[in-house]
Sequence to fold (1272 residues):
Amino acid sequence: MANIFPRWTNWLPIKIVFCLLVLGGGVSSGVWYYFTPKYTRVGYQPTQPVPFSHKIHAGQLGMDCRYCHSFVETSAYSNIPTTQVCMNCHSQVQKDSPKLELVRESWKTGKPIEWVQIHKTPDYVYFNHSVHVNRGVSCVSCHGKVNEMEVVFHAESHSMSWCLDCHRNPADYVRPLSEVTNLDWVPPAGKTQREIGQEIVKKWHLNPPDKNCAGCHR
Amino acid sequence: MSKRIFQHPLESQTGKRYWRSLGQLKDTPEFRGWLQREFPQGASELDGGEVTRRNFLQLMGASVALAGLSLSACRRPLKSLVPFTKGVEWSVPGKALFFSSAMPSRGGALPLVVTTFDGRPTKIEGNPLHPVSKGATNVWAQSSVLDLYDPQRSQNYLFRGEKSNSAAFYQALEALVSGSKEGSSLAFLSDGVPSPTRERLRKDLLLKFPQAKWAVYDPNGSVSEVEAVSIAFGSGYRVVPRLDLADVVLTVDRDFLGVEGDLSAVRDFASRRTVEKSGDAKARMNRLYVVENRYTLTGGMSDHRLRLAAAKAAAFLKMLALEVSSLTGDASLGKMAAELKAPEAKIAPAWAKECAVDLFSRKGKSLVLVGQRQPVAVQVLGFAINAALGSVGKTLEVHKSESKASLGIMALAEHLRKGKTETLIILGGNPVFDAPGDARWLEAQASVQTVIHLSAEVNETSSKATWHVPAAHYLEQWGDSRAADGSYLVVQPMILPLYGGLSEIELLAKVLGTPGEALALVQKTFLEVSNLTGDATAAWATTLRNGFLENSASRQISVNFRSEESQNAVSSAPAILFSENQFELVFVADSKVDDGRFANNGWLQELPDPVTKLTWGNAALISPSTAQRQGVVTGDVLKLTLGGKSVEIPALELPGHADDSISVSVGYGRAEVGSVGQGVGIDVYPLIGTEGLRFSVGVTLAKTGKSIALAITQEHGALEGRGIDLTRQATAQEWAENSEENNPGYFKKMGIDAHAPTNFSLYSHPPLDDVHAWGMAVDLNTCIGCSACMVACQAENNIPIVGKEQVINGREMHWMRMDRYFASEGGDANEPEMVSQPMMCQQCENAPCETVCPVNATVHSEDGINVMAYNRCIGTRYCANNCPFKVRRFNFFDYNQRSITSLYRWNLISPKGMPESLQMQKNPNVTVRMRGVMEKCTFCVQRVQEAKIAAKVSARDKASESPPQVPADAFTSACAQVCPTGAITFGDLRNSKSKIAKLKESQRGYRLLEYLNTENRVWYLARIRNPNPKMPDASRAGSASRAHASAGKHNGGH
Fold:
């Protein structure tokens, strides 16, 4: 009986399997890289309705984060300042700057400014600002050096494993409360972050939920 | 070591048996289905809907194609953050604000504290400062927040059914009022809810329009009690029972723990049932005798219960009065009793005699309460017995009444029919639906040219009215009211009217022509009530903060019982007739929809009735023996005919119901109502004759041959294990004999736990080594079964409703349920005892659900909570199958995204979404779950986390010995917070100062199914009954151990 299948078909299954493996591997690594927050989120830098510069305010002028984000220490949310807060200064400083047109209009009409959200936690995550900033986690740990950003962008990945990096090893990240809003803080000479962190963890009995799902998911 | 058998032992067929339903008693296949499966056969499948397998595939194909289309437009959605332009005082984004307010309701408003998030009221709690509430509320207060956001609330002014506006209405109103000729053409109808400002405006109105008529109607009101009190003590008074002072209480046809009572009665009663040590049972526990026709919550708490048709209650009271008079030597009482024309009734004479002896033995500390349903003469006789027992002024206080005499609806209807009234203003209420038949209300209303109806919903009356005016919800208006203790409460708005509604007092002010913001109107009343002169700003601020005016509660006054008037009233009263082979029909206020006003509230509709466990509808309750005699089973549709009118209603066999008596609850079968209440239940108002008449003898009963499915949840979540395993009880006597000292583990070794060998575990889990260990205790001795906890849980945890059809399938989502057990010797279905048991996740330390989850979606936290990570759950439902307590709930459908009528349209292309107003109700701290996700009680983990965060935030950088700890009893779970009897306690087991740490050591404490070694974090405290040993039915009264002991002695393992 003649061969029904030509000879080259002997290699076909192996070739198919090989192609599928390569394809599968490619898709996996593609998803691995492109579908993770590190790629999808980091660097997101939308244009805001008002060209507000954190670099000028928080960096050059040295304003404390909490002047505008006033409830960060008491509430789960770090609030976006009201127009009133802008006008506290800008009713006297840069009164006629065209960049502030929208702010003045908002103040006049009472219509709020619609800022574009950059950092977004999913609905099933209950992040609380107050407990972090009151226990030695600096703004810079999650938001990057905002004091150097002309336009704010997403600096860290905010993925779950990124959260857990700190929840499992807080000593690598925490700092004294006085330095929480000092985004340029570096450990004083002669001490490493880990040493300072370990001291804080021991002294304050830091115990972030590292295994308790309900710490963030309710 | 013997082999460990995990088969649940068979229940012994002798001795005391516990059962939830007649199905369980007879061990029907349906019940076995509920017991052995997570859901009954077929309920896990997709039948009954519109989607067949074939069109499912079609729809899936379409959905995938659409998904492909939408992927190409995959962009990060732009979301805005919108701050205020100006900061709002006190408002911190993300933090709740709490305001005091009050919910106006029959018999006295409930003092509240309302939780608001960013200006949205989301949750209601009781006002802890006020003695009536002390932080507790009831099912209606809990669910009222849903009414506020009901998308089908009235949103427009309607003129003859057409959309109109406020300006047109005001214009029309002015014309009507100015032409009212001293008010002779004006009539008002209001509900009976107390409101000092309304009363003040009413006085002003009657000064301005002296000819105007003012009537008050509440279908579940207490006109007969008002009349009885005015006969017995004089008019202008009200009686206040002091259950906290009464050692022996007899109630005759009065459900004071349920629909016919208020929070303070419940709390006062429970205060005498709260026991710590065995000695307390004798020292403090009261004894409750109950005579009633149907099982009520009061009957469930009773120590002795006599089931008796409502019409025969008079016969019992007559017997009792004769006994009491012979004991006290009070001849006038004997004479009065002799003249009461009561029907014949077969009542064991010893029951009445021993009851009378017991009441008499605590003279001055005993109390007799007679139901408002009973004829005036019977109620007067009740007061006479109280007077003879010396309880008037002691356990039965007489207070001045704030409410003024008004016309009733019968008189108003008659007046209207004369045709002299041109304008009728109805302030709330729904008389077209709920007026008694003999009032011929429709006819009366039709003889008025202009009917103005102020109502929060477009109901039966609105559509027959000329003008419909949307009413503001109580959370949207300024107002005031009086609590059950008479204290002055301020109703404070939480939000501007969502739909531009008007409040009662604003409308009255418009009629009066006095301009006035509601706030100013209330403040004026406040000045009058508080007797303040000069600047009252500070006093007003304090009152607003506290929610009530200090020292404004009414006080008792010394009034003598008017023996002569009472004698006359009793002797001239018509005879109550009830002969053999007759049926009586008893109308009861519904435990959920009340008189029908809450018919569009899904939380209430889906809440199982505390006794019948019926959801989504009402039924004719009959006793099992009557049912058997008539050849009727639950679900059979009966035709009830009374006075030429008939109603077809399904029957429901209720154990413990009196024979020859049928009970129906009013308020169902609303014709014009939002989509939730549409077609739910049967309207029985047509059978009611006149106002205040709440039972009728001579109803005829016929079978129609039809049968409908009732959504009864009593067999849902049935547990393996015998009743005494789950609900343990003993009599006070037995507890004394087996006290802490004599027999320390008495309650722990009942039932199966007396047989089970010592537990050992092959399984280990990580240590639960947090500084906290959360736990809960449920005191079955004070739990009355009111189910307020279920609604509180629903409101707190964003639990959806599923609709009647899904409840029948056993898919209700309540995280906690109220199991109601009947218990009787040998399984007698006619004379059982009742025990309610709240059942929530037991938070097992060795949780069977966790070990079977393939994706680790349910795991344990170090503080001992069995947590759910919804975003991980893939919906295998293994956990629910492995849960011995059946407390896990699965989202079979997208209950939050689709209405209960379109659940089966769950594909990707049909429209979905939650109405915006309902979104506003949701608790922002709890995830709204989606389809395919398992959920369950989390011990209110959001509150736990908030408390922990607060502790950490306040610790800041303080050096400490241990991690920051939440102070003892700093917060509690939603169910514990709402409980009016304090039966539920939640707290930190590791904190020796917390209440729970002490309760868990109580001798009465036991855990469910201990032999499974699940190490539950929920303790139950056994029920103690306090029977009178001389009573003929004393042997029946609650003893779990007796039945067990009779089956043989068991100690420890086998």
Residues 775 and 1017 of chain B are 5 Å apart (CA to CA). The longest strand of chain B covers residues 695-707. Residues 157-221+405-546 of chain B form a domain with the Rossmann fold fold (CATH 3.40.50.740).
